[in-house]
Amino acid sequence: MAAQFKNPATTALLELAKTRRSHYALKAESPIADEAIEHLVQQAVLHTPSSFNTQTGRVVLLLKEEHQKLWDIAIAALEGLVTAGRVPKETFENQTKPKLNAFRNGYGTVLFFVDYDALAPIKEKFAIYADNFNPWALESNAMAQYLVWTALESEGFGANLQHYSPLIDDQIAKQWNLPASWKLDAQLVFGVPTAQPGEKTFMPLEERFKVFGK
Ligand SMILES: Cc1cc2nc3c(=O)[nH]c(=O)nc-3n(C[C@H](O)[C@H](O)[C@H](O)COP(=O)(O)O)c2cc1C
């Protein structure tokens, strides 16, 4: 029997979680105004929880040409690895470059950073938790990533999550003049999907979930 919820928004929320997928085939179009994208990302940044309300998440929204600049930076960085002999030229030409160009074909990228330096006072104040604050800051950042990813999908975008740090960190900080304390974690690429996402398999839920006291 399907579970009954009191609030239809709960069903809608879970449905959004279910339909959020990794979309790699994207085009540089947007179903909504740039202001709406900006508002969506801002609200996610504002309302994502953080340990002790430390609010260490930092976000940069890149649209259109600025988004393309990001992926040009990544392409140049990977090309540099080829020159340095660390990535085979064939791998770069046949796999890496087409993949990076597919990201470049999107409409925008959300850059997610963590400001670990901002945790210094609270680490001192709660010394007993000092080692936990960095992982908690990252967990909080991941929550914001998930919220933005799901909300963008809800508005008709497709998105995929990338991790090209630290390779592109310096260039990004320079290009957009970002504070040195902003440590890049993830890049969420988005655009209008041009293909269905690949099939997804699921482990049996019984192997992943237990309930007691029902
Ligand atoms: C923490 C995390 C890191 C990920 N890193 C990458 C990544 O670097 N590159 C990538 O293409 N996908 C990345 N993904 C996407 C996963 O591969 C994808 O979410 C997973 O296979 C499930 O597919 P779905 O997103 O379509 O549901 C990441 C996902 C998560 C949650």
Automatic annotation (TrEMBL):
Keywords: Cytoplasm, Nucleus, Oxidoreductase. Residues 18-191 form the Nitroreductase domain. Pfam families: Nitroreductase (PF00881). One of its GO terms (cellular component) is cytoplasm. The keyword Cytoplasm applies. SUPFAM superfamilies: FMN-dependent nitroreductase-like (SSF55469). Its main location: cytoplasm. GO terms for biological process: cellular response to oxidative stress. It is found in: Cytoplasm; Nucleus. InterPro entries: Frm2/Hbn1, Nitroreductase, Nitroreductase-like. One of its GO terms (molecular function) is oxidoreductase activity. Belongs to the nitroreductase family. This is Nitroreductase. The lineage of its organism: Eukaryota, Fungi, Dikarya, Ascomycota, Pezizomycotina.
